[in-house]
Amino acid sequence: MEVRTPVEKTRLSLRLLVSVPILLLLSCHGLTAQTQKTTPRTFSLEDAINYALQNYPLTRAASERVTAAQAGVGLAKTSYLPRADMLWQANRATRNNIFGLLLPQSVISPITGPVLPTTSNESVWGSAAGLLVSWEPFDFGRRSAIVSGARSGEDFANSELSVTRLDVSVAVTNAFLTVAAAEQRVSAAKANVDRRQVFANSVQVLVNNDLRAGADASRADAELARAEVLLIQAEQAEAVSRAVLAQVLGIPNIDVQIDPGSLLSIPPNPNAPSPSLTEHPVARSEEARVNQIKAQEHVLDRSYYPHFNLQSTIFGRGSGANADGTIETGTNGLGFDRSNWAVGLTVTFPLFDIFSIHAQKQVEAANERAERDLYDQTLDDLTGQLRQAQATTDGARRVAEKTPVELRAARDAEMQARARYETGLTNVVEVADAQALLAQAETDDALALLALWNDLALVAAAQGDLKPFLQLLQQNKQGAP
């Protein structure tokens, strides 16, 4: 039985928030992606999730654990079958027997026959063959408890598979949205470079005609160089995010492209009712863990009973030694000289096992109480994470509704600043500031929508199922003009 450590338990608080904020990955400067150039593959978000669920190694490993647990149920059921043991042997040995008791052990070979007055180093052939069939007709529910324990292990493996599938789906969604955000940031950075290039060219013309000071050209060139640096950093972050997505999909050597679909339009308000958090895969996994321990306790409850074994045997033996001390020559003894059969009932009772069983039951009872506490903590964590995700989504939606206003105002301000500069009513600093504001507004507007979609995905993940999120994405796509 698998025992999880407290460190492994703490993954619960991070499981649903596996996604880091989009801008955190986009702001990294020191990591360079190195991927083998192959034929690019394009994925929509739903295609990427389905592909990862089928191909990501963690998902396949979890599926194999389910298969192993199912085989474990079959193994437990074999305890109902009778046991049949066959034996055949031939040996060459001396026949010196001695009178007296020998405690049970596995070193000295047993010997049968009369005790002879003399000893001899002469050896004879001996042989034996037999069949012993044992069957436990009733066991006071012990074998049924073992099968139930195996079934609880299968339930736990299935719940862990659901958790793994949710983790992978959330990770793919986060990686996909991060790539989409990186593409939008690159697009905004390119637009900023183009604007600053045009402005720098116009300033240079004015300077060449002695209509502006040379310092204006230097400032415009500096702003252009800074914009180019930001573009390089944005492209770097985009390459990194693509590498992350390829890794999550299980194809790290493939150049991955994305089809954002309707992710660049504002989503409708979801109206689906929130499912019960007790049905969340993480909660079901903790519940299955509790049931697994209860099954172990049930096995222990059924362990302190007598064991009844109905046994039947048939066997034959041969020996080249005679009772009067003489020995047979040649191959005498290799054949079976005598045969026997027997049928009987054997009852065994583990008298002093009561102490160890009692101690084991105390251990399992404590484990059950601990797992129940963790189950309660799981529900509390899921509730808190859901409320946090919903609050973040509400804020993200309000931001997404405001950024178009910011973008329009920034565009107007940039156009006016350039016009004022060209007519000599302002200086180059005002234009540089207006272009920086416009670049920020374009980035904010593009990322606000993706941040809203990301928060909607977190809400769905906190509820334990990404299907409503994907349905919302499909609904938004169908409703797009």
Offer a few descriptive terms.
single chain; 481 residues; alpha+beta; Outer membrane efflux proteins (OEP); four-stranded antiparallel beta sheet; two-stranded parallel ribbon; 12% strand
Architecture overview:
It is a single chain. The chain is an alpha+beta fold. 60% of the residues lie in helices and 12% in strands. The chain has a domain at 6-30 and 142-272 and 280-298 and 359-479: Outer membrane efflux proteins (OEP) (Up-down Bundle), CATH 1.20.1600.
CATH class of the domain at 6-30 and 142-272 and 280-298 and 359-479: Mainly Alpha
CATH level-3 fold name of the domain at 6-30 and 142-272 and 280-298 and 359-479: Outer membrane efflux proteins (OEP)
CATH superfamily of the domain at 6-30 and 142-272 and 280-298 and 359-479: Outer membrane efflux proteins (OEP)
Helix/strand-derived category reads alpha+beta
Radius of gyration: 39 Å
Termini separation (Å)?
55 Å
In short:
The chain is α+β, with helices and mostly antiparallel strands. The protein has helices at residues 6-9, 12-15, 22-26, 45-55, 57-77, 142-208, 214-249, 281-301, 353-422, 428-463, 467-479, and strands at residues 41-44, 83-94, 123-135, 256-259, 307-319, 338-348. The protein has 11 helices and 6 strands.
Topology at a glance:
Blueprint: H1 6-9, H2 12-15, H3 22-26, E1 41-44, H4 45-55, H5 57-77, E2 83-94, E3 123-135, H6 142-208, H7 214-249, E4 256-259, H8 281-301, E5 307-319, E6 338-348, H9 353-422, H10 428-463, H11 467-479
Parallel strand pairs: 1-4
Antiparallel strand pairs: 2-3, 3-5, 5-6
Helix pairs in contact: 4-6, 5-6, 6-7, 6-8, 6-10, 8-9, 9-10
